[in-house]
Amino acid sequence: MDLVIRGARVVDGTGGPSYTADVGVHEGRITEIGRLPGGGRRTLDAHGLALAPGFVDMHAHSDLALLRDPDHSAKAAQGVTLEVLGQDGLSYAPVDDRTLGEVRAAIAGWNGPGDDVDFDWRTVGGYLDRLDRAHGGQGVAVNAAYLVPQGTVRAYALGWDDRPATAAELDRMRQLVAEGLAEGAVGMSSGLTYTPGMYATGAELTELCRVVARYGGYYCPHHRSYGRGAPAAYAEMVALAREAGCALHLAHATMNFGENRGRAGELLDLLDAALAEGVDITLDSYPYTPGCTTLAALLPGWAHEGGPEAVLARLRDDAQAERIRHALETEGSDGCHGVPVDWSTIEISGTADPAYGPYVGRRLDGWETARGLLLGDRLAPTVLQHVGHEENVRAIMRHRVHTGGSDGILQGAKPHPRAYGTFPHYLGHYVRELGLLSLEECVAHLAGRPAARLRLPDRGLVRVGYRADLVLFDPDTVAAGSTYERPRVLPTGIPHVLIDGRFVLCDGRRTDVLAGRAVRRTARDLR
Q: Which positions fall inside the Amidohydrolase domain (predicted)?
């Protein structure tokens, strides 16, 4: 064997009881589990450590970070061995030249402008190939799966107009989604408080989800409201999945803003009823209360019609800017989840232009400051939105279909600490300190259940024949190092991480191994 891991507490990802065993690894796969008298080319003493399947980040925004940063310790050091990209309906494939430029501008706050990336792909398959040959052909830091982004598909097919799709345009969108799934995507995402995805009707989304279902994928919506309209928005997604016969995975599922304090039970009751009917549902969440998005995302949907340059033109026009302010502060814009904005909850976390760096870490004092930042930094500022409730976070993470997702935006001088801390924070704070989940339950949430949602037949469990994507951590010391004040500090208590049996983290230090590859789920038309 290439490696024998001795005396680990095996937490196998099923949720069942942990046990002590040796684990043998050969040619990237787990070959033996038990008491192994023989040695390997390398032996690792794991007494006192838990051995778990590598964690799956079900909601990641590393679409460009994996290409620009071979180290990527933000995720590798957390024990993440697979990230799901293409989230919230906006990413970089499939595109044509026009759409690529528009999307790059629209989500510069998530991923940076991309001036340091060679966008030499236009299709989903081309993007996945690009991951495989990144960094001189070595690959990327961790594995990555991809969701076809519905907003990008809509922009490609009909632009950024707020109108129903024609029959021909809907056919084109169906074709683009089908092609992406056939090329290896695991499903489709939406961002229904982001443009142009929010312009889609329920009927349009249902038709696209029928395509997703046909290929055995899943639908991952950032639904239409996490605020005033949250219960109805969740119900819409469940009804859509039921009608389309499509598996549903609710992105960063939570109940935010004052209207929803203590109301997580309503969401969970809705899910339980649908699950009892046979609807295939999972969800992900991060173990923190603030949200994170772009400042521009808070604007009303109509302000985005026509694309990023049209938004900037409206912001420069005093009359249009006043109309936007009224929508934000009085009406409650759809971009702010139907709730009138409370500027004191909005903290700037990053800017693209260093000239606006002094605003980072500050709460906004009103519309004119926000308008100036949007214009000066060309829609790029990112924000933390302090609108969550701990009781809702705890209730949702305990549900039997819950999985972990960081929603980690790696851009900005002061990103959300979830980008660097989600997985050790679950293990340290919610398992060890609060006892909200058992260690075995938590690992199932972070590894076994996500791999099952992705329909990956050889990942997510410590089992003979499975890929040796593994994390070893100390249950007594594992903790997030990242905080709101120092968000880029790496976690403690995670000494070893392996992908395909290769150490990407060894003795707490990032190696130069690039074992990550695009994980293409074999998608076939099930008609």
A: 43-504
Rg from Cα positions in the chain:
22
Q: How far does the chain reach from its first CA to its final CA, in angstroms?
A: 43
Torsion of CA 512, 515, 518, 521, to 10 degrees: -160
As a whole number of angstroms, the distance between CA 434 and CA 389 comes to: 17
**Could you write out the three-class secondary structure of 58-79?**
CCECCCCHHHHCCCCHHHHCCC
| C-beta separation of 393 from 417 below 8 A | no
- Lookup result for tokens 């549902």: 281
Nearest to 219 by CA among 453, 57, 393: 453
Give mean pLDDT, residues 445-456. 97
pTM to 2 decimal places: 0.96
In the chain, the amino acid numbered 312 is: L
Distances (CA, A) of 490 to 75, 108, 295, 414, 479: 9, 24, 27, 14, 9
Cβ atoms of 23 and 53 within 8 Å: the answer is: no
Q: What is the rounded distance in angstroms from the CA atom of residue 322 to the CA atom of residue 315?
A: 9
pLDDT at 314: 98
Helix 264-277 vs helix 390-397: crossing angle, to nearest 10: 20
Name the nearest CA neighbour of 136 among 512, 467, 510. Answer: 512
CB 398 within 8 Å of CB 405: no
Sort 390 into a burial class: Cβ within 10 Å, 0-12 / 13-18 / 19+.
Answer: exposed
Q: How far apart are CA 252 and CA 59, in angstroms?
A: 7
Q: Is 169 left (phi over 0), alpha (psi -120 to 50) or beta?
A: alpha
For residues 482 and 406, what is the distance between their CA atoms, to the nearest angstrom?
Answer: 13
Render pLDDT for 149-184 as a digit per residue (tens, 0 to 9).
Answer: 999 999 999 999 999 999 999 999 999 999 999 999
- Determine the 3-state secondary structure of 185 from DSSP: coil
Tokens representing residue 89 in the block: 């309906």
Per DSSP bridges, beta strands 247-250 and 218-222 are parallel
Whether the Cβ atoms of residue 499 and residue 486 lie closer than 8 Å to each other:
no
- Per DSSP, the residues of 292-323 read EEEGGGGS-GGGGTT-HHHHHHHHHSHHHHHH
Contact 442, 473 (CB under 8 A): no
The reply to whether omega before 450 is within 30° of 0 (cis) is: no
HEC per residue, 340-363:
CCCHHHEEEEECCCHHHHHHCCCE
Which helix (H) or strand (E) element contains residue 31?
strand 29-34
For strand 143-149 and strand 187-191, is the pairing parallel, antiparallel, or unpaired? parallel
